[in-house]
Write a structure and sequence with these properties.
Strand order of the largest sheet: 6-7-8-3-9-10
Helix content: 25-40%
Oligomer: single chain
Order of helices and strands: HEEEHEEHEHHHHEHEHEEHHHEEHEEHE
Shape: globular
Number of strands: 15
Structural class: alpha/beta
Radius of gyration: 22 Å
Largest sheet: 6 strands, mixed
Length: about 350
Amino acid sequence: MSDNQSARSNAAAVARESQPGATIVLDNVTKHYPGQKAPAVDSVSMTIPAGDIVVLVGPSGCGKTTTMKMINRLIEPTSGHILIDDTDVLALDVDQHRRHVGYVIQQTGLFPHMTIADNVALVPKMLKWGKQEINHRVEELLELVGLPAGQYARRYPRQLSGGQQQRVGVARALAADPPVMLMDEPFGATDPITREHLQNEFLRLQQDLKKTIVFVTHDFDEALKMGDRIAVLRERSVIAQYDTPTAILAEPADDYVGSFIGSGGQLKRLSLIPIADAELRPVPANLNGARTIVAEATLRDCLDVMLETGHDQVVIVDEYRDDAPKRGMLTLDDVMASIRDEGPAEPRTKAGAEA
């Protein structure tokens, strides 16, 4: 079994016993610091569907992190209501509330004097779980994020790479099985290759876990990749547009939103379309020279391969190995038609049906 298949199997096993995500409602939430003329966050209203990743994106200082921190009351709102599955969290004991909301930050927040296992076990211990239950949870979560307990549980954060520390941070946030997770620039401190790998791994986990996630970033490309929905924020967290990535790319609300998209909006749209959602052509028996690409990649990845190789076709496979079955193929015209909203030029097989 490959590492990806193992991770999917582990995630599915955890998901069967996992608490599903909860709906979050922000109702006219405002934060006004004493001595400041203008509020830091001004009357934000937003509904975050259960099981979705909603990304808050905007310039530095616009209030996106403040907005997120009010959900777990690391910052107390001045006014308004925050509901999680119809419960007003402002009426709850603040410590108990925070223990039921996972929190992942850019610097990981791991305690350097504690082992990896103890870091992950921190919140379950606070909730007075039994020792055996805690040990089992730590083992399954470390396995889930690709850090087997037998190899990593007794290490300390300083003995791990930055990417491994971020994985531990995610495991710790999941430890008490919260319905809601808050993620503040969680992968921002890692190098680009590690960052992309962590993004992909987390999205795979989320397919099974279905937590409700509020994700803060200043990187619009990351927002497009991670978000089921994106809230583009102006100063004081005023919402400029709140919609799906595809809708925002297709119809930005105004020039301010358009400035985040910049040039190359059509290419960004390609990055949102997985190959698995495309309709594939049969692979001709005499096809030569075309490169292969896995079905979990995107149409933007297909285009990149075509530009790199000079061939206007790619063959779709399940995994990179010499004897991998061919699921079908895409041409350059197919890729470009997907963003021109054109129909197929000729009959094709649906992705997943082997030609």
